[in-house]
Amino acid sequence: MSTKTTAFFRGNKEVSVDFSAEEISSDGSIVLLEKIERQNKFISHFSKVIPDSRQAHRTTHSIDKLLKQRVFMLMAGYEDANDVGHLKNDPLYQDILGGELASQPTVSRFENSLGKADVFKLCYAWLDRYVSTLEGRKHITIDIDATDDPTHGKQQYSMFNGFYGQFMYNELFFHDGETGQIIAPILRPGNSHSNKWYVSILKRIVQRIRAAYPEMKITVRADSGFSCAPFYALAEQYRLLFAVGMASNEVLKRKVAKAEKAVRHLYAKNNIKHQHFIGFTYRAGSWQQEQNCYAKVESTGKGMNIRFFVSNIEQQSGRDIYLNFYVKRGECSENRIKEVKNMCFSDRLSNHGFWANFVRLFLSSLAYEMFLLLKKEIRKTKFESAWQWQIDTIRTRLLKVGATIKKTKRRIFYKLSKAFVHQDLFLSLIATAT
């Protein structure tokens, strides 16, 4: 029997509350996530890669269930393992997962059960799955970028980074510049320079791609932190195209001194916006050979801005390379990292062990890739206003809807709220998701 509690009076009407309604979930669209997973078997693929050393007769939750629970929770906005406490009575999660949810200690043991060898195995499985999606393509762009993840407490390999001015982990991402797919997510100690490990990792990526598609044209795009002699040697060895930023130095400043003086005189002192591009050859002391370098000498209307970049893309001017290709890394790489970090919570690496936190990075990346599959389905619908939704918008407008569940002997009914604004979009997705 419910007990009503008076909250307040609105005029002469009593406003009361109780807990007599049916079991309602706030994540009614989780059934859509389940359908997408069943069609693509994305989570299932990686659950088969993860070893399970537990004793079978003492195991309640399979690796597949643990992975699915964690990824679906991240997609619904539950950042940490202990958020399962808020969902332990949720009828929809219990139905999708086939029983009670795994507890926070169980999830934490799962994250901490994988070591270095297991994580490396996951990295290669991730790369191989990406390569398997390239059929029919003749060209790919690999975007490379890193981001900081501030740490709190004595976490393993949490180190001070002078550039960011904080104790942190360093996350490195290789993205497909056309599709947004993560080619490889990498976690590094906090004091890592941007180019630490990345050339050797890129080499493995290129080798895997070329083994499957020998004629694949590969272009690499990155900022100045990734400009180094080993990269240019790798690009020469594997015939890679590239457009990479380059940090300023005294030699480069002398190369553009006349152009800078002219732009400053004609435009900057008059607060006029103007961009001037010049090209030249340049070879740093550690480089094996000269490279074609370019400079953007810009009057922003409020001062001067000079940027340098290196590229071996032929038959295009420096202006075209910069404006039509290089700057697109902002949308194709930086904004995608923001989605992984801020919307799929890869900045919540709060385990003590480094490899457990690497696993958490994988979980966030899995959630991101599931959202990519959902975005792909949304773009197949007629609802053009939803085509540009970012992950947090999809979560708020599509996934967060009140729902109940009713089971009969032969059917399971998910009953979503009548007030759901995007009913037509949801019905289109649930009927056509492939």
Low-confidence residue ranges: none
Percent range of helical residues: 25-40%
Question: What is the averaged pLDDT score?
Answer: 93
Give the tally of β-strands: 13
Strand-helix topology:
Blueprint: E1 5-10, E2 13-17, H1 30-40, H2 42-47, H3 63-76, H4 91-97, H5 104-112, H6 116-132, E3 139-150, E4 159-161, E5 166-176, E6 182-188, H7 198-212, E7 217-222, H8 229-238, E8 241-246, H9 250-255, H10 257-266, E9 273-282, E10 291-300, E11 304-311, H11 318-324, H12 329-343, H13 354-378, H14 391-399, E12 403-407, E13 412-416, H15 423-432
Parallel strand pairs: 3-7, 7-8
Antiparallel strand pairs: 1-2, 3-5, 4-5, 5-6, 8-11, 9-10, 10-11, 12-13
Helix pairs in contact: 3-13, 12-13
Task: Report on this structure.
By secondary structure, this protein is an alpha+beta fold. It contains 15 helices and 13 strands. The strands form three sheets. Strands 3, 4, 5, 6, 7, 8, 9, 10 and 11 form a nine-stranded mixed sheet that branches. The longest helix is centred in the last third of the chain and has 25 residues, at 354-378. It is globular and about 80 Å long. The mean pLDDT is 93.
